[in-house]
Every structure is written in structure tokens, then in C-alpha cells.
Amino acid sequence: MNFSYKTQRYMILFGFLTIPLALLCAFSLYPAAALFYFSLTNWDGLGFDQQWVGLENYKELFVRPEIFGAFKNNLYYFVGGLIQTAIALYFAVILNGKLKGRYAFRVLLFLPYVLHSVATVIMFKNMYHAEYGSLNVFLGALGLESWQQMWLGNPHLVNFSLAFISMWKYFGLSMVIFIGALQSIPDDLYEAAKIDGANSWQTFRFITLPSLRKVIELMLILTLTGALEAFDIPFVMMLGANGTSTFVIQTVDMAFKFENFGLASAMAVVLLFIVLFFIVIQRKVLFREGK
């Protein structure tokens, strides 16, 4: 059977689009729709006995301040992410230059991101241990016994300790992204600035930063969403104990510990809208298009 060129073209396009669209519907659109439906029901996650309650789950969310109070712990990860992004940019600028051994340094700094989160947490759990942890042992060897702390037992320090783990793990990824962006900046711009007598700070301020505008915007979005969705490090390390529970940990506990999948689904939907809200605010306020 012979088909015209136009028909063959449509058949090829349809064939290539069918599988991606089917996967998108199966693993993204349908689960999202099901999540919203579950948020309107009272369901324990077992069987199909789902009682329709409408917006009652959302009303319950906004009359329980302890649920949204968990976002104060997410704030530690957001601030840590901002600091990590700034330090990653600094190291990216250095390692993008003609530094001897820069490739080895890039590998060493990127290595923590390759490690599995559970392995990273176990490593830091041994480092933070109050008695035999390497951090307190190191401080004792330096004669700084007064600096030794219960890094995971002190509720005033535990979230800082966990946020540092997140900074350490994702620092390499941020640095590599910045290095890739820096390598796309034409060398002619730096040579012209050098001829005009610009110093290092002026070159960074008027050439490097404007050229990295879109990448910095991306990094801030990743920092924001990563902070709002912080889960693996505080959950594996502390199971949310000692004031380390984040919003996602509370969502998981609500579903699998308290078997209230309806309320947990409502929490997940609210988190989705919170993330979208802050992304829109960031793009419209901090990075206005056409500015």
C-alpha cells in the first residue's frame, strides 16, 4: 500500500508522539488528577472505599497551624541553598580559569553529588556523633573542647547540621552548571574588558553576572523547590524527630503513618501550588522578562 508523502509524514509524527504522550499521561497527568481527586475524599489508602468529603481536607489543613509550621524547617534548607549557590559560583569562576589541577578539583567537588543520599547521611551520622564522631574528635584534638556539641541532639543546632549536609551534597552540581555556563561566555568580552582597564571585580560584575542571569534564575528555582521538597536527608537521619520534620515528611507521615491519604493528598496539592506561586513571584519580581 502506497501512501502519499504528507500521509507518511503524519504517520511518522503520530508514531513518534504517541509513546511520549502516553507516558506523560500515564506517569504525570493521570497521577496528578488522581491526587487532586483523592484530596477530596476520606481514604485510608486501602481498597476502594473512598468517602467524598469535598473541601473538608483543605479546611482542616488551614485550621491546624502545626502542619504549615513545618515550613520553618524548610527555611534552613533554602538559606543553605542560597549560600551554597553563591559559594558554587565563586568556585566555578576559579576553576574555570587556568588553575593547575582544576580538573581534579572539579571531580573531587562533584563527587558528593554522585553519592547516594542514604550513604551520605550515614557518613555524616558518624561524623556528627556526640561521643565518637569525627567532628568532635577533631575539635578535641585542636584543643577546642568548648566547641564540641551534640550536633544532632541539640534542637537549636540540628537543622543547621542537616542543612549543611544538603549544601555539601548539591554543591558540586551547582558548580558544574555554573562552569558550563561560564564556558559559553565568549573570551572576546573578557579581552576587551582587560584592554579597557577593567579589574577582576568589574569584569565579574558587568560581564560574568549578566551573562549568567538565566542560569542564576534556574539555580534559584532549583534552590527554592529543593528546599520546599526537602525530605530524604532529615527523614533518613532523624525520621523527622527533634524538630526536624519538614512539610514533605509530615505529608508522608499523614499518609503512611496515620493512614489519612485524603488529607495527605490535600497537603501535596497545596505544596504544588505553593511551589508554583513562589516560582511565578520569583520570575515576575526578581527576574522580570525583558529587563
Automatic annotation (TrEMBL):
Gene3D superfamilies recorded: MetI-like
Q: Which UniProt keywords apply?
A: Cell membrane, Membrane, Transmembrane, Transmembrane helix, Transport
Q: Which residues cross the membrane?
A: 12-38, 75-95, 107-128, 160-182, 215-241, 261-281
Give any Pfam family that matches.
BPD_transp_1
User: How does the entry describe its membrane topology?
Assistant: Multi-pass membrane protein
Which InterPro entries does the protein's record reference?
ABC_transporter_permease, MetI-like, MetI-like_sf
CDD domains, from UniProt? TM_PBP2 (cd06261)
- Similarity field: Belongs to the binding-protein-dependent transport system permease family.
Question: Which PANTHER family does the UniProt record give?
Answer: ABC TRANSPORTER PERMEASE PROTEIN, INNER MEMBRANE ABC TRANSPORTER PERMEASE PROTEIN YCJO
Q: What is this protein called?
A: Carbohydrate ABC transporter permease
Biological source species = Cohnella yongneupensis
